[in-house]
Amino acid sequence: MESFKTVSTVERIVRNGIVTAMVIGFSGWSFYDGYVGYPHDNLMEARKELPAEFQDTATINERVTEEAAKSFQKGVNVKELSESLGPPAWQGEFGGVHEKAVWFGRGGSLIALVDKIGITRTVEWKSGKHKETDLWLQKLMGLVLAPLAVFMLIRLIAMCTRGAEFSDEGLKPSGKALIPFDAMTGWDAKTYKDRGQITLEYETANGQAEYVLDDYKLAAFKTIVNEISKRKGFDNPIKEEAPQT
Length: 245
Description:
Order of helices and strands: EHHHEEEEHEEEEHEEH
Oligomer: single chain
CATH topology of the domain at 49-128: Beta-lactamase Inhibitory Protein, Chain:B, domain 1
Mean pLDDT: 92
Strand order of the largest sheet: 1-6-7-8
Strand content: 15-25%
Shape: rod-shaped
Largest sheet: 4 strands, antiparallel
Number of helices: 6
Low-confidence stretches: 241-245
CATH architecture of the domain at 49-128: 2-Layer Sandwich
């Protein structure tokens, strides 16, 4: 029989591939929402505070946060706000008595009403549709899922590349030493019906050893068991019983 290499079954690879893709997708989507999607939604909503001709040019100011907004009280000069946060996204007349100055952050807006001499009469933080805590939770979820996604991807690659190699010399599991035919002593198939596993017992220089063959993890499971049983004269634990007549 020609030598061959076998890896995991298609069923196992497909199932794990689907789950891996889902975890990677959830992680990526969480990062996207936390850093891009949610802030963009907030900006689109917050732009409605501006006159129509200014809505398309307003952008997010990274310095504008709820914490920064709450550090300012009414009565502060609008110039001080601008020096600390940068120029407002828009400032103009509001109601004929005051001016309105608006700064956009990722999680909401800072809105100030300013009198004719530049003193703020109100300084208000208005949370967006997605609050800063929502953005933080999305980033955290992405961060938690990222290592799991990497682990599952590495595991999936191993399923596609690692398994066992069968040849005229014997059986060589990936990452382990060759098990020569002369060293094989028998099968232990107690868990085959329940788990689909058969243990190959063999001798080493250090004594008795075992290697578990799993019909879910090895695509050529039956071929290997049949061939070893035939060559060694072992009772074949997966041999189908002849139909009764």
